[in-house]
Amino acid sequence: ARVAGSRLTAFAARQGFAPDDYEALWRWSVEHLEDFWAAVWDEFDIRASAPYDQVLTTRQMPGARWFPGARLNLADQVLRWTGVAPALLSVGEQGEPVVVTRDELRGLVGALSATLRGLGVNQGDRVVGYLPNTAEAVVALLACASLGAVWSGCAPDIGPQSAVDRFGQLDPVVLLAADGYRFGGKQCPRLDAVQALLAGLPTVRAVVQVPVLGAPLLAPTGVRVLAWSDAVADRREPEVVQLEAEAPLWVVYSSGTTGLPKGLVHSHAGVMVMGLAQLGLQYDVREGDRFFWYSSTSWIMWNTVVMSLLLGATGVLYDGSPLWPTADRLWQLAEDHRITSLGTSPGYLLACEKAGLDPVGDHDLSALQAVGVTGSPLPATSYAWVYEHVGADVALHVISGGTDFSAALVCDAPWLPVTAGEMSCRGLGLAVESWDEQGRPLVGDVGELVVTAPMPSMPLGIWGDADGSRYASAYFDVYPGIWRHGDWATITDRGTALVHGRSDSTLNRHGVRMGSADVYAAVEAVPEVAEALVLGIEQPDGGYWLPLFVRLVDGVVLDDALVGRITTAVREQASPRHVPDEVVAVPAVPHTRTGKKLEVPLKRIAQGVAVEKALNLGSVDDPEAVAWFVRYFASRGSS
């Protein structure tokens, strides 16, 4: 019934494909890119005040441009849904859930966009949000989109310096900021952090303060402050500006290992078309569904929840700990709010499994149709746990993709069986392969995950990268003209995929990414620390080991008090999600001869790769330092 009734089946039939040959449909979709994406545009009746002249200008990457000539706005497509059905359901750790109907969402977006316009926000200006995962954040994104302003957000648990590192690149004119958030039963006031954020964002002219804890309004000098209630008091129909298809919608961040986080710019049309194809066809999200993914506003899965509104679904938002007051918190949410699609991380499922939970026995999950999992590889054993303890009939969507293009490269489809440890398919319209070092496609062997043809949601570029050189070097330098994603992956002869973890050194704990540079900025500011090295290591059992190695100032001993100050620095200045599992004193940190820390080679050695395969010792500034790490990992039994 799921196959016959799926939107994918009807869509495929219109293209001449039967629901027993996904591989044929996928191959057509990548060989005939223009036809496929035009069909998606028509399937979901994308609203455009002017039609596109062509689907795609060129297949060259970078440089491909999508839907030139079209005039549209993502906010139009979301706000086309009217009436009293809920658009948003916002749940916190305490208090009653907040329901925002479709009509109320239109009024709120209209009110806030008028306020922003009154504050001098124009098309192309940047507006940033330091906000938890609540309805206000969604309203803010849509209000910016309706004006043609560019949105960027992050969660208030991110330290102010890390937030400045992101937002400061954009020269924002307005900041929306919460007075705090709640997590694990605790109140976390953040107005001091907002003050620090303002000090680092001199272009901000106005602040809209969002009440979470009920703190008094800020009173900074030289900056206007509005209460959220005043900013949305004048409910009205939104005036939605019609934009070029590739007008910038938002900036999201993919943290590299050196320098500032990369601000990736995505377009209105690209995000919209990709979101509709992935959620509508692969995930089978329908009007009236209740779509939830445990996330924060710092992670692209928050944006994905907003994209579910394109299909007439209710976006379910939860701000708080997934483990408080008990480890079954998300399953309780699913019961209380009749969630149809629940998304989470492998780490949460592992925690539930280790706690001996039986969600289907302890909760009414009769509304739950799908469980989504992303962020890191899901151990094969966890597949069986989901079917046994969550629901034998749920659709298990294990997906892997990236913030980089707001999409899943490998995923699932309603037609396909699920094999433990694997993802069922490559996404439609996505020319995904696994390549060896010479650029040859691999089947059944581990290689670099690549995309060989343009995707609508590939970034317009990296913010501030005027000549495109940073964008090109980040994604297209290993295989010229081919997107290298940075994951180790296997594509099987059945068309399924296994993702083995990051092939670079971005920290990626439970799907929340952060560059090592953020951790170094916090740790190396501790006076006793001369230098630090952090590794994020995927483990065979699905766990994630995040050790921090520190070279201390001469004469300093690593005691419990110093470990506490180091971990506090990471928690407060970088992210509480990236506090190391252990802090280890080392005699030296090895580098390349050009001064780069050997993060990737040491991670590979920790995972069991032989030293001579992981690096060339002749290119290392201190081979004895490498030898120390080899001995240390061996003493731990490697990973």
Protein model, in words:
The chain is α/β, with parallel strands linked by helices and 639 residues long. It has three domains: 2-72 and 245-502, ANL, N-terminal domain (Rossmann fold, 3-Layer(aba) Sandwich), CATH 3.40.50; 98-243, Rossmann fold (3-Layer(aba) Sandwich); 507-635, ANL, C-terminal domain (GMP Synthetase, Chain A, domain 3, 2-Layer Sandwich), CATH 3.30.300. The protein contains 22 helices and 33 strands. The strands form ten sheets. Strands 3-2-15-14-16-17-18 form a seven-stranded mixed β-sheet, with helices on both faces. Helix 6 (102-118) packs across helix 7, helix 8 packs across helix 9 (191-199) and helix 18 crosses helix 19. The protein is globular, with a radius of gyration of 24 Å.
In short:
With about 650 residues, the chain is α/β, with parallel strands linked by helices. The protein has 3 domains: about 1-70 and about 245-500, 3-Layer(aba) Sandwich (Rossmann fold), CATH 3.40.50; about 100-245, Rossmann fold (3-Layer(aba) Sandwich); about 505-635, ANL, C-terminal domain (GMP Synthetase, Chain A, domain 3), CATH 3.30.300.
* Biggest β-sheet strands, sense, barrel: 7 strands, mixed
Number of strand elements: 33
Percent helix, as a range, is 25-40%
| Rounded average pLDDT | 93
Binned strand content:
15-25%
Compute the number of helices: 22
* The number of domains: 3
Main sheet: which strands, in order across? Answer: 3-2-15-14-16-17-18
- Tell me the CATH superfamily of the largest domain: ANL, N-terminal domain
